[in-house]
Write a structure and sequence with these properties.
The chain is an alpha+beta fold and 305 residues long. The chain contains 12 helices and 10 strands.
Length: 305
């Protein structure tokens, strides 16, 4: 199998004009990432973008991802873009600790502050909707005869009910990351930084919070804490919890499409099918919870203030 990092090694070395050491970084599910170390102690991140990800609808176009990464850096939360290569980025190496599930739970206020910085920054050049993404993934699954998790079609009416409820009183869109798995959050001495803008676009800020909560496995109390840290109150808790459900439901199909159309990626051996099953189980659990109807009512009622 070709090594995408190796393919650009000489180009990067030519740009830097010095001997470099490349160390592959595992953890990314789509694109290919390596740390670059120079003999004089400088360090960067090389991000090689796989065009198959965009072709399969699993990420935004590469030129848009580059532009959004530049905008996020201007907001003070994303890594600085050092150099742009054909199909690849050389990025600032963010010194810090990559967060995991317990660390995100322990740093809720810092994570919310990082989101506010990103959301207050320059707008991105594209928009993102989790409902549009769900429909796109469904269409790709049907077009390529990819097997959906058993019972997936049965819960779609509930997803569309969530869409209608949220659309009654939409929030202004802001530049969102839209894929805040724990590993995309890095704690530094100056707060939390956010990396990897593969799915970025202007969106409802409550989706950003709901996605964080979904990826970190937050319970309802933690969702309240995250919402308060971002908004300063509880009014949008139902909206965040409904977006948590939609994140798990839609990312179920992200893994189905990746498994079916890309088949290999930056993490060979990763069990995409198991990940899809786990996310779908969480979505079904929350859709069947007695509180689901109250969440819908909560976003339908007039906002206060």
């Amino acid at each position: 199998m070709p090594d995408p990092v190796g393919d650009v090694r000489d180009v990067v070395a030519g740009w830097a004009g010095r001997p470099l050491t490349f160390t592959r970084i595992t953890g990314g599910l789509s694109h290919h990432v390596a740390r670059i170390d120079s003999a004089d102690g400088e360090r960067w991140i090389l991000r090689v973008l796989d065009p198959r990800i965009t072709e399969a609808g699993l990420g935004i176009p590469l030129d848009q991802e580059i532009a959004n990464t530049v905008a996020a850096a201007a907001a003070g939360v994303g890594p600085r873009v050092v150099h742009v290569l054909p199909g690849a980025l050389v990025l600032e190496y963010v010194e810090g600790v990559t967060l995991d599930v317990p660390a995100v739970a322990a740093r809720i206020e810092e994570v919310a502050a990082a989101c506010r910085r990103l959301h207050a920054g320059p707008r991105f050049g594209n928009d993102f909707s989790i409902f549009r993404t769900l429909r796109d993934y469904l269409a790709r699954c049907r077009a390529h005869d990819l097997a959906l998790p058993a019972g997936f079609e049965d819960v779609l009416p509930l997803a569309y009910e969530v869409e209608a409820a949220l659309a009654r009183r939409p929030l202004p869109s802001v530049p969102c990351h839209n894929d805040l798995i724990c590993g995309n959050l890095i704690a530094t001495g100056d707060g939390v930084r956010i990396v990897d803008y593969q799915l970025s676009g202007n969106n409802d800020p409550c989706f950003e919070l709901g996605d964080i909560a979904a990826e970190a496995g937050f319970d309802p109390g933690q969702v309240v804490r995250l919402t308060r840290a971002y908004f300063g109150g509880d009014e949008h808790v139902p909206r965040v919890r409904l977006n948590l459900i939609m994140a798990n439901l839609t990312w179920t199909l992200w893994f189905v499409v990746h498994q079916g159309l890309v088949r290999s990626g930056a993490m060979p051996g990763f069990d995409y099918s198991a990940e899809a099953a786990g996310k779908f189980a969480q979505a079904v659990r929350d859709l069947g919870d007695p509180s689901f109807g109250r969440l819908l009512d909560g976003v339908r009622k007039p906002r206060t203030g």
